[in-house]
# Entry
Amino acid sequence: MTCTLDDLAGSGPQPDQDARTRVLETAYRLFYRQGLRATGIDRIIAESGVAKMSFYRHFPSKQALIDACLDLRHARWMAWLEGRLGGLSAPRDWLAALPDALDDWFRSPGFRGCAFINGHAEAGPDAPAMTVTHKRELAARIEQQCAEAGLARPGDVAADLLLAIEGAIVRAQMEGADAACGALHRVFARTLSDAGGKQ
# Structure
């Protein structure tokens, strides 16, 4: 799967799509822009242009639709990240370029933070499993690169970098990319330098 920043924002339904895809793409865009709780089923049905019976045939509940949207967002976000950093064969270069990739995302039209952080905050203890799974898979991907780069304690380094990423996402959502990216670059540079490994 290839994915662009426009794909992450969601384009909404297209005329040639089947009913399930139209619903999913509509919800994908609205959930990210408006929030999980604030977006009602009736609005999704109206904007997708499908009949209510057709909607419930594919998604028997709002929770089923939320889960499908988060699965899709996870797949797209990870595909975008790999595509953005795919030309970097050296693991340390991949890690060093991660703040620039995130800066691109922060500055993209329609950026509204992390759908998984937002969804977890909205739902609390009843948050969909993917809100946690996404972060664990991102942490595992970063840890893999840290290990391949020969960094000391790759799990700890990945945890530190992920914490910096999460803080930068929230800061960018609240105050814009300029408020987040300088600090993110500095934290990455210090953390990677302190961890040693292959240069």
In short: The chain has a mean pLDDT of 94. Residues 87-199 form a domain with the Tetracycline Repressor; domain 2 fold (CATH 1.10.357.10). The radius of gyration is 18 Å. The chain has ten helices and no strands.
